[in-house]
Fold this sequence. Notes:
The complex is a heterodimer. Chain A has 3 domains: 31-216, Aldehyde oxidase/xanthine dehydrogenase, molybdopterin binding domain (Aldehyde Oxidoreductase, domain 4, 2-Layer Sandwich), CATH 3.30.365.10; 223-294 and 353-432, Aldehyde Oxidoreductase, domain 4, CATH 3.30.365; 301-345 and 443-728, Aldehyde Oxidoreductase, domain 4 (2-Layer Sandwich). Chain A has 21 helices and 30 strands. The radius of gyration of chain A is 27 Å and the shape is globular. Chain B has 2 domains: 2-70, Beta-grasp domain (Ubiquitin-like (UB roll)); 78-149, [2Fe-2S]-binding domain (DNA polymerase, domain 1), CATH 1.10.150.120. In chain B, strands 2-1-5-3-4 form a 5-stranded mixed β-sheet, with helices on both faces. Chain B starts with a strand and ends with a helix. Chains A and B meet through helix 7, helix 9 and helix 20 of A and helix 1, helix 2, helix 3, helix 4 and helix 5 of B. One FE2/S2 (inorganic) cluster (FES) sits between chains B (93-99, 130-132, 134) and A (73, 350, 400). Residues 35-38, 40-45, 55, 57 of chain B line the site of one FE2/S2 (inorganic) cluster. Chain B: Keywords: 2Fe-2S, Iron, Iron-sulfur, Metal-binding, Oxidoreductase.
Amino acid sequence: MKISNLGHQVSRFQPSRRQFLVGAAATGVGFKLAFPARKALATEGTDPDPFDAYIQIAPDNTVTILSAHMDMGQGCYHGIATLVAEELEADWGQLVVEGGAGNTKYYGNLAWGGVAQGTGGSSAMFSSFDRYRRAGALARTMLMNAAAESWGVPAVEITAAKGVLSHASGKSATYGEMAEAAAQQPLPAEVTLKSRDQWQVIGSETFRRLDSGMKSTGRQDFTIDVKLPGMLTAVIAHPPLFGAKVKSFDASAAKAVKGVVDVVQVSRGVAVVAENTWAAMKGREALTVDWDESGAEKRGSAELLAEYKAALEKPGLVAANRGDAAAGIAGASKVIEATYEFPYLAHAGLEPLDAVAAMNGDTLEIWGGHQMPDLYQAVTAQIAGVTPDKVKLHVMKTGGGFGRRAVTDADIMVEVVETAKAIGWKAPVKLLWTREDDMKGGRYRPLFVHKVKVGLDAAGNIAGWDHRMIGQAILVGTPFESFAVKDGIDGTSVEGVNDTKYAIPAFRAEVTNAQTGVPVLWWRSVGHTHTAYVMETMIDEVARVGGRDPVELRRDLLKDHPKHLAVLNLVAEKANWGAAMPEGTYRGIVLHESFGTVVGAVADIKLNDPANPAAGFKVTKVTCAVDCGTAINPDQIRAQIEGGVGFGLGSVLHEELTLTNGLVDQANYDSYLPLRIEEMPVVETHIVPSENPPTGVGEPGVPVIGPAVANALAAATGQTVRILPFSKGVGV
Amino acid sequence: MKLSINGEVHDLDVDPEMPLLWAIRDIVGLTGTKFGCGMAQCGACTVHQDGIAIRSCVTPVSAAEGSEITTIEGVAGKEAEALQAAWTALDVPQCGYCQSGQIMSATALLQENPKPTDADIDAAMSGNLCRCATYQRIRAGIHDAAKAIG
Ligand code: FES
Ligand code: FES
């Protein structure tokens, strides 16, 4: 069968090879995962049988949809249910969504060329838009064909609506009643998807999330809630310094704690295994471990910052070079120079890292936040000594994620399987990280420093822009290296700077990959967390210095980009940009594209004391406009923008993860400070109507809020905050 | 020791120092109450002790003896029902991990203050972190529930 409707499914990462190399760091052994060719998957293949891959219909008429993407709260299950329901003509009430895993051909992320299953880069809707509509349409066609056959009528006379098949003769059957016969039908050779004007579910405001009731009544199970007969709970003593290793340990006191069953060494520490969580924690307190710290990272944030700043004086890898930035700056009538500092940030999802492993017969079962299932399956199979097909992954919803559950060395999965193996597979093991383990466990948003020089001509136009960045590259040395690292430049370090849409004819960007022993990872919106901040505060500063209105300047610089202009104009209009502001209130505007989605934001702030900006401020309202292509679930788009703004605002106001002599200074939510309710502004989101393929919304709300607040504050004070978080230098 | 949870008395043989949270989750087996921090910083573990919202992660199980503990599984009454209906109608939860605690805190708030202002809500709910930052909808949900109760 031909796939007729995949025109837009071009991959955004072009894999340079057909094999996906799993990093040696994962298990100490380098090995390769062979994946089917991207070409066959994304452009020329056949649709899988929907009943094998995506849709299960039970006799009681329950429709279970198997999602290729993990839901960590961002609502992709809701989006996928919407796509299936539209074409399947299902009743919303009969739908259930579960995580699918273990078959790259079905679940490979099409934004990554289909070579691996994974959730990230705000790509779930992009990857799912055709796949799940086609699955729904194929399944409905097969149900109709089965009914036609069993009733002896032409298929075109069958109506499918709300989970019921019917015919003018009065015959009818639920999908559940016809499911078995439908599964026997041949796959239709062609299926036509509905046109947009026929949509009733996609774009609708009617349908609520399928999990809201469960999550409001405590019935939603997360990994931490998994219960298995005889299950033991483990906590691990990790080295206090990154890179330290176990030298020796004394388990006698730990083993004396009531309820402690075993104390075993694993590759990254010592696991205390007990009958319950409290016993495991008490056991760990009683444990003594001697660490070999010879190879450990002992520098603190202050040393790293000083080294980064010094390194920025030297040239880096050239990430963008248009025109002659140096000449433009040399001939400028005014030069703005600025250095920005961004701290390490922790994901700090409310459910700490956890996973459950059990060996059942010859099959290893793992419950967890399987954000990169193919990789986790391969890595854990090797530890357990089974083939990957003997690893069954149960994809759990997670209490947040923000990037932390997609780890290229499968950290928590490795730990739980090593622990279960070390106790001889004698019981299922739940491994739980405490909040402190989570906070001190690394995988942070990297520390970054930017140094920018912008030259303006006499008319205030940008004559040259020279931009240097330094920070750890997230993807170098990981299985994703071949996707996103080119000539040593990690796309996730420079995204948002090197690809700016602003018309700056003389523009140069350089990046230096810093080397430290502190593990880093993607953190909701990745490089954009710092690049948007620098770009958008600098553009505002250009406007200020040149005596231009910030919206007008952006309009000029984006005149060849209608999509960006439309978002900018919509947010300016909805926020009533240019209106007189009451005393003590100020506003800042930002426009930024990330993951194919363009977001504009106007942040309104109110000074605590109009006469004294140093007395602090409150962000009162944030007006946003977003173009994310086709709006599959408008209310979930608003929810993600609201959440992204809150998440991002917390990070710029208070969050920083610091190290002193290599030790992490923060341990819990008393010292690492996400946003709380009293700081949450009113967020108003406006969606630009679009017929383009959908892009993501899980991340793009995050990068805009920091610079929008900084620009509002600069409107009040004339000063841009360049050292984050704000709490370091401004009273908040 | 005897522990009354949601109207049912459980006979537990546990370390009296064990936090109530772990007794509820690991021993009694009710897992709607969540662990987020273990030090009264996030509110995910909020339960009611004789109708008062407490953080079960810092309450030794021995301190709960002789009182009536209500968890998300057992919370009932017009406030809780109105809140849960509003939460569903507004799609408040994202990941949902904090929401048991949010509902328990919001229920205690409405029982004491049937018509809270935004400032009242912020003050009462400040101890409940939501890393997904669903705060705007939490505020709206509490207002809607207050209205529905009348
Ligand atoms: S777990 Fe009790 S307040 Fe966080
Ligand atoms: S909904 Fe995710 S922490 Fe609140």
